[in-house]
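User: My instructor asked us to take a sequence, write out its structure as tokens, and then describe one feature of it. I'm not sure where to start. Here is the sequence I was given:
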Amino acid sequence: MLEYLLNNYFLLLYFLALVLSIIKYRYYYDSVLKYLPILLAYTLMNELLGLLVRDVDEIQIIYNETYYNYNAIIFNIFDIIFFLYFFYIYRNTIRNRQIQNITLYGAVVFAISCIVNLYLQSFYVEPQSYAIIVGAVILLTNAIAFLIELNQSNQKSLVKRNLLFWISMGIVFFYSIYPITMYLISFHFDLYTTYNFTLIHNTSIGIFYAFIIIGLVLMKKYKTITS
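Assistant: Let's start with the prediction itself. The structure tokens for your sequence are:
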């Protein structure tokens, strides 16, 4: 059991982030981040279900002997919700009108890519790699734009106390790697296993949530950017 938890240590990070998000909720309950605890709770439950389906033969969501332990559909649904949630966050936080429009149109493009991907890869047993790549590029654009705008704002001295700053740092790190790992899983699985990308993927998750935890620990009352 201990070895299993060590191999899936990011579950503890999910749990810690969720607990801290609830403890610190009074700091951002009236902000655009008010649904963050729900997302973190969903993330934890989603990951637990994914592990159970993968590792426990008696728990299945696809009743097919070939794919009985496949959990891709769980994470495909999660990716859609996660991307759309943060598109909403950045659309309502970034002040630059041009970036706001890019976010809005990007969300539409992402939705279209999700539909197209249904015809290219099985939603039930394969990661939706094309949609993930599209979503990651749009999300990275938003996160970087937010960080630049925050650096140029009159809140520059309070950056380390801004929760979305730390979340955005985690997004930039994780979503620079995630599309690569998903692409390799789908199209070059031999390379994925040869170079142990599972470790790289899990480490990137750990770093992402470490950023979130740091942000929750350091945060003060959440405020939007003012120019």
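For the description part of your assignment, you could build on this observation: Residues 13 and 94 are 28 Å apart (CA to CA). Try explaining in your own words what that tells you about the chain.
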